[in-house]
Write a structure and sequence with these properties.
Layout: H1 14-23, H2 29-39, H3 54-63, E1 70-76, E2 82-87, E3 93-104, E4 110-118, E5 122-124, E6 139-142, H4 145-158, E7 170-174, H5 184-194, E8 207-211, H6 215-223, E9 232-236, H7 242-248, H8 257-267, E10 276-282, H9 290-300, E11 305-311, H10 325-337, E12 341-344
Parallel strand pairs: 4-7, 7-8, 8-9, 9-10, 10-11, 11-12
Antiparallel strand pairs: 1-2, 2-3, 3-4, 5-6
Helix pairs in contact: 1-2, 4-5, 6-8, 9-10
The structure holds iron/sulfur cluster.
């Protein structure tokens, strides 16, 4: 089990609570009570946990201060997307995005409602992808597991979603601020906590972790044990050659190139209907040509892969341009003709700068 920061109330699993409380001469079942109260009943202050003896509550208050993030700002888009600025206990700020979605049948009747939360794993980011606004912030710090969990519980509460009940339609994507694999232990721990049936009970198959492509961590992810199922992994590819990727994503340097990246992707264990997902941000005149599509096809040959195309979302003063609709479609057609399932990601919240790569705390 990855290490946890001391006094991280929301980052502990029920068994860990049981062990800690047992050391205070309390029965083990108290661990489940504490976990449920924190995650399903949204306990704000330990004194409200009246099932526990007073001295235990006092000790918990002293040893495990409860910090929930505060919503500092909400910005709503015309398409229903809401961008949140959240303040953490030390005053650091992160962003998260709520993306509601109606799914319609062929006749246009609403079939079901789907909710996606895009969350942050770090405040800022050290990776410096050249097309991303978050990169302009640099890394301020990584979030603890408890802070990641608290972020999710805060968003669920904001939208009236009850942890543990009916959350099987809630998607969680680690695509906000930060590179999740540079905060690997805390992200894995947060996922384990958030998928516990006694807690938020999120479905692992509805969680996606997106990485800029840290080869050694992709391998580790493939070996990681997730008792309730492995969440999805999306690898940001964004280029068709080493030279191009190095220019767009400086982190590419020194990792063994596309060959090593794709070799690690090939090692990921896949279920019968699973694919390795690649994200590809299209930048006009940079990586959106048909020659790029052909090189991507050649690289992905033999891999059970799926590609999500994202037309770049304009961000501040970054020196790129959004691709023409026709080049996005042509790129998609070329990949599909080559046998790769390819989807175009619908831009969301562009008017409020909440779309992919636009989160920068403004
Ligand atoms: S795209 Fe992701 S990994 Fe790259 S700089 Fe932005 S937040 Fe960091």
């Amino acid at each position: 089990m990855p290490a946890v920061a001391p006094a991280e109330a929301l980052g502990l699993e029920p068994e860990e609570w049981s062990s800690r409380l047992e050391a205070w001469a309390l029965p083990r079942y108290r661990g489940q009570q504490v976990f449920r109260a924190l995650h399903q009943e949204r306990l704000e202050v330990w004194s409200d946990l009246r099932q526990l003896p007073l001295d235990a509550r006092e000790r918990l208050a002293a040893d495990f201060p409860l910090h929930r993030p505060r919503i500092a700002r909400r910005i709503a888009s015309a398409d229903g997307t809401i961008r949140y600025l959240l303040s953490l206990a030390d005053g650091e700020q992160i962003e998260a995005v709520y993306l509601p979605d109606e799914v319609f049948d062929a006749a246009g009747a609403p079939l079901r409602r789907r909710t996606t939360f895009c969350i942050s794993s770090q405040a800022g980011c050290a990776v410096n992808c050249q097309f991303c606004m978050t990169a302009t912030l640099g890394l301020r710090r990584s979030l603890t597991a408890g802070e990641i969990v608290a972020q999710v519980l805060c968003l669920l509460g904001e939208h009236g979603l009850c942890p543990g009940r009916g959350l099987d339609r809630v998607n969680l994507v680690f695509m906000g601020m930060g590179e999740p694999f540079l905060n690997y232990d805390n992200v894995v721990r947060a996922i384990r906590v958030l998928t516990r049936p006694e807690g938020a009970a999120l479905a692992p198959r509805r969680i996606t972790v997106s990485t800029a492509g840290i080869v050694e961590k992709i391998r580790r992810w493939g070996r990681e044990e997730f008792p309730r199922g492995r969440p999805n992994l999306a690898i940001s590819l964004n280029a068709s050659s080493d030279e191009q990727r190095q220019r767009l994503m400086p982190l590419h340097r020194g990792q063994g190139g596309l060959e090593a990246l794709l070799a690690a992707a090939r090692e990921l264990p896949l279920g019968p209907r699973e694919y390795v997902t690649f994200e590809y941000v299209l930048l006009a005149g940079v990586n959106d040509q048909l020659g790029d599509a052909d090189r991507v096809l050649a690289r992905l040959g033999g891999l059970r892969a799926k590609v999500n195309l994202i037309a770049w979302n304009a961000g501040g003063s970054l020196p790129f341009a959004a691709p023409e609709r026709e080049s996005v479609l042509a790129f998609q057609r070329r990949l599909i003709a080559g046998g790769i399932a390819t989807y175009i990601r619908r831009p969301r919240g562009r008017d409020i700068y909440a779309a992919c790569g636009q989160l920068a705390k403004s």
